[in-house]
Design a protein that fits this description.
With about 150 residues, this protein is an alpha/beta fold. About 40% of the residues lie in helices and about 10% in strands. It has a three-stranded parallel beta sheet. The N terminus is likely disordered. InterPro entries: P-loop_NTPase, Rab_GTPases_membrane_traffic, Small_GTPase.
Length: about 150
């Protein structure tokens, strides 16, 4: 999702429903996209899973000389809103994969800690195949699982 408002914003709101994670992206060369972040964050937290993981991504890091939003300013916004933050470049690929991996790792950690329950409706997590439900149990459940008898 990008910080700039879309003409049919109500359509974009449906993308948040039940989401477990989101990348909130703004353009570091555009004050306008940065100024829209608060509204997009409110939508995400209102319409998605209550435990949504949000990564704030300042894109176009390759255009640093044209920057309108400082790293410090965006970092402060992230800290005040309890978001993870990094700067990326879609052009060079810098930190793009890392943003997705950081989001996925954080979601997995929340599942492992019990903060997110994939079995709960609206958690934002769904198993693709019913057989996978038995493979992905919280670590605490795996540790106490009875061992088959060797008799």
């Amino acid at each position: 999702m990008t910080g700039s408002p879309w003409p049919h914003r109500s359509v974009t709101r449906s993308y948040y429903r039940g989401a477990a994670g989101a990348l909130l992206v703004y353009d570091i060369t555009s004050r306008e996209t940065y100024n829209s972040l608060a509204a997009w964050l409110t939508d995400a937290r209102t319409l998605a899973s209550p435990n949504i993981v949000v990564i704030l991504c300042g894109n176009k890091k390759d255009l640093d000389p044209e920057r309108e939003v400082t790293f410090l300013e965006a970092s402060r916004f992230a800290q005040e809103n309890e978001l993870m933050f990094l700067e990326t470049s879609a052009l060079t690929g810098e930190n793009v994969e890392e943003a997705f991996l950081k989001c996925a790792r954080t979601i997995l950690n929340k599942i492992d800690s019990g903060e997110l329950d994939p079995e709960r409706m609206g958690s934002g997590i769904q198993y693709g195949d019913a057989s996978l439900r038995q493979l992905r149990q919280p670590r605490s459940a795996q540790a106490v699982a009875p061992q088959p008898c060797g008799c």
